[in-house]
Amino acid sequence: MHRRAFLHAAAAVPVALAAQAAESAAAARVRRFLAPLRFGINVERSDVLMNGWLTDAVLREYTAGVTHIRIYPPSGGRFPLVSQEQFALWLRASRGIIEAGMTVLPRCRG
Description:
With 110 residues, the chain is mainly α. It has 4 helices and 3 strands. The protein has helices at 3-34, 46-50, 56-62, 84-99, and strands at 40-43, 68-71, 103-106. The protein has a 3-stranded parallel beta sheet with strand order 1-2-3. Helix 4 (84-99) links the parallel strand 2 (68-71) and strand 3.
């Protein structure tokens, strides 16, 4: 190996190790977040919220085995945005899910 190539490779090692450590820390944070999530359900339709079907009693039943609920707030695109009053349904549902002890995973799609 030529001296210049050796020096270049040697200088790159700390940078590569730092990048690897940063990726490892980020991966560890993701693993810690995902670790307690075992079984989840989707609340994809606004009818569930608008008709009041996601009640505190239902959420209490879910806590027996559900660790997270993924909700789909309207985010534009194919799913038109709604008024603030209607969007408050998703916020109240999120608060209820969290208060019941589960994790909320909002899924915005266009």
